[in-house]
Amino acid sequence: MKILTITRRSQILLASVVILAILVILGIKYDLTRHLPTATHSEAKKPSSDFFTPIYTLADDLSIQATPFPQPSVLIAQHLPYFTPLHRASYATHKLYSEIWGYGYELMQWSKYTHVKGLSNKAKSINKIYAVHRLLANELGKAEADRHDWIFLTDVDTIVSNPAIPLHVLLPPATEDTSERPEPLFLITQDHNGFNAGVMLLRVHPTILSLLETVLREFEQILNGPTEGWNTNDQVLIARILTENPHYAKHVYEMPKNWFNSYFSKDDRVQLQVHLVNHFKKKYRFTPIIAENFEILKQAKDLAEKAGYPNRHGLDLLDYHRDAEIAGQNWWKDAKGGIENIRFLWD
């Protein structure tokens, strides 16, 4: 597929940061609940009353051009059935991040279950799995040259803190030798409770489609069974299927949590985003994380100009970028698949 990268005049990136800051600030002040449009980049200039329309026109302001880009390719996906200020900030930072590195971005708003008597809020998290199943099936329906390689499924309580960390350098190399170990298809992290389903990387592959279908079948059986089983959420269902099916489990690889599922800002040199999980949403403000993002964008712009590259975003010139490349290369030299060292929380 064609992947996007950025070329632009030196003043544009700073202006884009200001635009994004205004969007986030306004989103905090006014809790607007209008749906986002499903416009593609080519449709960005069509009139719309949507609050986030400037995010789409931002792509034009940045003078984005289609150019070859290193593989593997990434599609960032977020399930966003409703808005809160935090959700708006998450959307805005991930959308801009996708534009910077030439990744796809998909906002999934469809929910199969919203008002089911007896269905707990925790169980409603299964809507994310229904949505990503639909997205993955759509990708597999495309010609191989047109589909993405990976789907980065990240919750809407995650904020990009360091845009200089590109996802693709942390993924298994496109030339991965599967003769020595199972093919990496499902990349996860775990915290003190074990497996966390808030951030996952899914290979666009028939095996992962089958895994999601198995999870959804399990949920439908629970939904149509005794009501005491209705508290089952996406995390528990995925855990159950992985522990019962070695065919899926062997393709699971645990990734360093701090890379893209850190619970605290500046946990590590290689840290893409912060996940304000559970009570952290109320305990910590997300605006300092966005400020950190903006500061890194400004540092990159200044460095690119000093180096004589006024048409580059400059993020690839920062030490963070080099650290991420080295970390990814070193990690995949010895990575091992399987769930032997993964803990699962069953409630």
Automatic annotation (TrEMBL):
<dbReference type="Pfam" id="PF05637">
    <property type="entry name" value="Glyco_transf_34"/>
</dbReference>
<dbReference type="InterPro" id="IPR008630">
    <property type="entry name" value="Glyco_trans_34"/>
</dbReference>
<keyword id="KW-0328">Glycosyltransferase</keyword>
<keyword id="KW-0808">Transferase</keyword>
<keyword id="KW-0812">Transmembrane</keyword>
<feature type="transmembrane region" description="Helical">
    <location>
        <begin position="12"/>
        <end position="30"/>
    </location>
</feature>
<dbReference type="GO" id="GO:0006487">
    <property type="term" value="P:protein N-linked glycosylation"/>
</dbReference>
<dbReference type="InterPro" id="IPR029044">
    <property type="entry name" value="Nucleotide-diphossugar_trans"/>
</dbReference>
<keyword id="KW-0472">Membrane</keyword>
<keyword id="KW-1133">Transmembrane helix</keyword>
<dbReference type="GO" id="GO:0000139">
    <property type="term" value="C:Golgi membrane"/>
</dbReference>
<dbReference type="GO" id="GO:0016757">
    <property type="term" value="F:glycosyltransferase activity"/>
</dbReference>
<comment type="similarity">
    <text>Belongs to the glycosyltransferase 34 family.</text>
</comment>
<protein>
    <recommendedName>
        <fullName>Glycosyltransferase family 34 protein</fullName>
    </recommendedName>
</protein>
